[in-house]
């Protein structure tokens, strides 16, 4: 076969098995599709969930990858906002823009058959030299000229998650905001929470090295490691003796849901952006009279243009998350490091081999 018709791609073969395969370069299937030549993609913890068989909708044989940037190669005749040569981010959500939920702005509940998280899960994603993006006018965003690929890389997934988590938290100036989870999504959430001018951001995690990075980069005002006897007392003393005005739970650990509502002051907002592997207990008798508001959900792709504007203006910068870089041909080595959390890995940028 002519080498120009195939490409390398990371494929979910079966539970427990990812592999690099030679695959056909994708073609336009619909007049609203675009083909994007991927320049850089990242590995997400959701990819690891797929590998473990923990994502029921994931299809065996699919090319994974749902957080990437690239250059538009080809567009269907009904794609209006993008032309070949445009530099773009690809967002994790596929949405039609026309159904009941899309019209209300709830794009991650799109009723299209591929609505929601399809790329790199139910349809081929972007850990490959090329990716087909359905509804390209919705699934792509223009990268401003002064923003490079690594600055833009997380726009469509973890930054979209962090931005959305901070937005639904309704953070006010002078609020004390607690963010549980100091991984990539937690850090993205802290960076986005800062945009609202809170009095302080308190980062909570059991990983001391991640807390040290957060302290070093000034991403949160204070870092706290749970587990010590006086954890809650210390937290109260940091929040005027009341508890947090807003709690954002981005960890999804064994006990972090309980921690989230316990750290909240009365009448606070508790936002759950974490993905849990098990059901969680909502102990209503214990929180009676606390008058909490709970908000839940996952990534929302509707603010990617605003996120890119903030990056362009220097108000959001996630480059510190990239700890490792590999060519796509070394993706299996990259996955091993990411999955086993070797070398204090945070995020990995996969660069596509030259065609
Ligand atoms: Zn992801
Ligand atoms: Zn829709």
Bound molecules: zinc ion
The proportion of strand residues reads 25-35%
- Biggest sheet, in brief? 7 strands, mixed
Overall number of domains: 2
What is the structural class?
A: alpha/beta
CATH architecture of the largest domain: Alpha-Beta Complex
Q: What global shape is seen? A: globular
* CA distance, first residue to last residue: 15 Å
Low-confidence stretches: none
What average pLDDT do the residues reach?
A: 94
Order of helices and strands: EEEHEEEHEEHEHHEHEHEHEHEEHEHE
Radius of gyration: 20 Å
Key attributes of the depicted protein:
355 residues; Rossmann fold; 17 strands; binds zinc ion; seven-stranded mixed sheet; Quinone Oxidoreductase, Chain A, domain 1; six-stranded parallel sheet
Q: Short description, anyone?
A:
The chain has 355 residues and is of the alpha/beta class. 24% of the residues lie in helices and 26% in strands.
Walkthrough of the structure:
This protein is of the alpha/beta class and 355 residues long. It folds into 2 domains: 3-157 and 300-351, Alpha-Beta Complex (Quinone Oxidoreductase, Chain A, domain 1), CATH 3.90.180.10; 161-296, NAD(P)-binding Rossmann-like Domain (Rossmann fold), CATH 3.40.50. 24% of the residues lie in helices and 26% in strands. It has 11 helices and 17 strands. Strands 3, 4, 5, 8, 9, 16 and 17 form a 7-stranded mixed sheet that branches. The protein has a 6-stranded parallel sheet with strand order 12-11-10-13-14-15, sandwiched between helices. Strand 1 (6-14) and strand 2 (17-24) form a beta hairpin. One zinc ion (ZN) binds at residues 95-96, 98-99, 101-102, 110-112, 115.
């Amino acid at each position: 076969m002519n080498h120009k018709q195939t490409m390398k791609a990371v494929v979910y073969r079966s539970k427990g098995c990812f592999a690099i395969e030679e695959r056909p370069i994708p073609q336009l299937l619909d007049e609203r599709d675009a083909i994007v030549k991927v320049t850089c993609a990242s590995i997400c913890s959701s990819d690891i969930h797929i590998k473990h068989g923990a994502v029921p909708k994931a299809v065996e044989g699919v090319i994974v990858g749902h957080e990437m940037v690239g250059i538009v190669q080809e567009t269907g005749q009904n794609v209006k906002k993008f032309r070949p040569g445009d530099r773009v981010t690809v967002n994790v959500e596929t949405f039609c823009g026309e159904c009941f939920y899309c019209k209300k702005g709830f794009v991650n509940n799109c009723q299209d058959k591929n609505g929601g998280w399809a790329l790199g899960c139910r349809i081929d994603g972007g850990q490959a030299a090329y990716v087909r993006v359905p509804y390209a006018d919705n699934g792509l965003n223009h990268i401003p000229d002064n923003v490079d690929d690594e600055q833009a890389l997380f726009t469509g997934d973890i930054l979209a998650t962090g931005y959305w988590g901070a937005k639904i938290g309704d953070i006010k100036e002078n609020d004390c905001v607690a963010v549980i989870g100091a991984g990539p999504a937690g850090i993205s959430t802290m960076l986005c929470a800062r945009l609202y001018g809170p009095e302080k951001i308190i980062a909570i995690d059991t990983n001391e090295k991640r807390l040290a990075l957060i302290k070093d980069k000034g991403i949160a005002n204070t870092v706290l490691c749970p587990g010590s006897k006086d954890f809650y007392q210390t937290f109260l003393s940091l929040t005027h003796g009341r508890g947090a005005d807003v709690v954002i739970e981005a960890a999804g650990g064994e006990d972090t849901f309980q921690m989230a509502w316990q750290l909240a002051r009365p009448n606070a907002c508790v936002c759950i952006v974490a993905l849990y592997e098990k059901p969680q207990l909502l102990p209503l008798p214990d929180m009676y009279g606390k008058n909490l508001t709970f908000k839940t959900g996952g990534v929302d792709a509707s603010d990617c243009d605003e996120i890119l504007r903030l990056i362009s203006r220097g108000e959001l910068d996630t480059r510190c998350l990239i700890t490792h870089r590999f060519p796509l041909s070394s993706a299996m080595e990259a996955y091993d490091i990411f999955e086993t959390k070797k070398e204090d890995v945070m995020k990995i940028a996969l660069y596509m081999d030259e065609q």
